[in-house]
Write a structure and sequence with these properties.
Strand content: under 5%
Helix content: 55-70%
Low-confidence stretches: 215-224, 240-247, 253-274
Mean pLDDT: 76
Number of helices: 13
Distance between the termini: 17 Å
Radius of gyration: 22 Å
Order of helices and strands: HHHHHHHHHHHHH
Shape: elongated
Structural class: mainly alpha
Amino acid sequence: MRDMNTDRFAFNRRAVKPMVCLSEGWQLIKDDYWLFLGITFVGALLGGMAPLGILQGPAMCGIYLCLLTRLLNLPVSFNTLFKGFDYFLQSFIATLIMIAVAMVFMVPLMIVYFIAFFSLIAAQAPQARNAPPNEEFLWSFVSLYAVFIPTTMVISMAIHALFLFTYPLTVDRELTGVEAVKLSMRAAFGNFFGVAGLILLTVVLSLLGVMAATSGPSFSCRSTSPCWRWPTVKCFPRPTRSQIGCVSSTLRTTSRWNPNRRSPARPGSSRSGP
């Protein structure tokens, strides 16, 4: 029998396939699309109501609980969203770690940007008053933005990829904030191309959705957070009966939960160790 603690940290490698994740995620929520969209909207609003991401962790855990509830074929409601506060402490610790990592990369980038920006302004100072900026200044200014904005986007997407699984792991593996962050990073590297492809795909689809003002399945995947969290379902083995005791106790307060009940089939999942 496999050690339970080892099993908690097991994950599937090369299990995240962008198109499969989006397609199966949409199939999971499409019957209650507007409910899930509302839950995501309220969760995002709730998560941004306090500084330092104090409420972001519980809100994201609540959204994932809604997905887990649907996977168990149970009715989903807004009450489930607020049960994310059962994971307040560990999700907040995870949030602080993610903020710290982001600052390590973003603060030096911002310092370099402002130094370059004010250097350009200073170089323009000797010009005659009311004279238009010279062509070299304009091109330098455009070049600065052309480097800064894509670099910021790449760093943001990389950080998002590393911590993609953090909040879900806090819920269905009952990990501490530190453990969830570490395991999320390992799983992200173990599914590097799939996670990177999924992030790029959802960014493109989100942009197309904004331009087309469309709310269909192809254009709503990023805004509908449970659909976006389907990679966790693909990457991590289904929790055993003993491992999801915390989740079962949370869910049974609002609905009947049977630990032997099978969740919807997830094709293409192959289990492997870390």
